[in-house]
Amino acid sequence: MNQLTFHNQNTNQNNENIPIIAKLSEAYKMWHTFLVHLPKIVRFTLGSKVDTLFTDCLELALVASYQSKLEKESTIKQLNTKFDMLKFFIKLLWELKAIDTNKLTALSTPLAEVGRMLGGWMKLYK
Question: Which pTM does this prediction carry?
């Protein structure tokens, strides 16, 4: 048995097929490569905060993808708040010169798409 098979193969929903989760995962993987290169003074403070916010956003998006329409609104609001905090702290890292403009730009591209998708979710489930 394949050790990476944690779920039933017959599930209807594949998380990689959920666009917001795919884009958040893409951004997180990119962030993860940046994290190890942050100066120590911010790696364990703001870097850790951003890492936690990324995983919180991924968790909330995953939870929302499995919820019924009635349950989604609250989770999507939480996701929106966490996502706004994530963008704020990434910008703060850039302002502190802990990440350069190229890294900020690279992260901004998938995060902008996530923002549009999240806005669509919010309109849909209000």
Answer: 0.86
